[in-house]
Amino acid sequence: MTIALQAPHLVGALIPVDNAPVDAVLKSDFYKYLEGMQEIQNAAVKRQAQADEILSKYENALPVRQFLLTNLVKKSQSDVLVMRIPIKTLASSLGKLGDFPFKIPHEACYKGPTLFVRGTKSHYVADDVLPAVGQFFPRFVVTDIDCGHWVISEQPEAFRQAVVTFLKNLDED
């Protein structure tokens, strides 16, 4: 969203996924995930299955765990898996992760086609923020998918269909 507002000429169409152009308070789950990621790091795991076993103590939903575990990479010249982004960096940035850099609607505007995909069980794109969405992105449409915040992981096929429909409609315009 930020790039579209800062340099609209670089963006042909925009698809924010369960994020809105407002400051948002992150759910406490994010801190719990950091704890699990730290435990994985401390355990020096060598297989993703080991990491998933540890993370399952912090998150029950397999799709969410799978998404979080995409951050695991092999340490150079070692079999040990480490987090791509250092956990200390994530932890120190978490408080600002939900901030949106534009505070005043109309100080920036992206007039290109925009699809906001939101999870119906998530609080990040509530109906009461839609007026702000419209001020920053006047050509927006919303698609609701029956899931939480991790839309792509929880409902990949529904997400794919929403995106394909949106893009096909662009071709017809």
Q: If you had to describe this structure to a student in words, what would you say it looks like?
A:
The protein is of the alpha+beta class and about 170 residues long. Helix content is about 40%, strand content about 10%. The protein is built from eight helices and four strands, in the order ααααββαβαβαα. The strands form two sheets. The protein has a two-stranded antiparallel sheet. Strands 3-4 form a two-stranded parallel ribbon. The longest helix has 17 residues, at about 155-170. It is elongated.
Name the descriptors:
173 residues; alpha+beta; two-stranded antiparallel sheet; two-stranded parallel ribbon; 8 helices; 10% strand; elongated
Please give the number of β-strands.
4
Q: Which value, in Å, is the CA radius of gyration?
A: 18 Å
pLDDT < 50 runs, ≥5 residues: none
Q: What is the ordering of alpha helices and beta strands?
A: HHHHEEHEHEHH
Overall spatial form: elongated
What is the arithmetic mean of pLDDT? 92
| Spatial strand order of the main sheet | 1-2
| Tally of helical runs | 8
The rounded distance between the terminal residues' Cα atoms is 22 Å
List the helices and strands and how they pair.
Elements: H1 2-6, H2 29-43, H3 48-55, H4 62-69, E1 72-74, E2 81-83, H5 87-93, E3 114-119, H6 130-136, E4 140-145, H7 151-154, H8 156-172
Parallel strand pairs: 3-4
Antiparallel strand pairs: 1-2
Helix pairs in contact: 2-3
What would a concise description of this structure say?
Helix 2 (29-43) crosses helix 3. The protein is built from eight helices and four strands; from the N terminus they run ααααββαβαβαα.
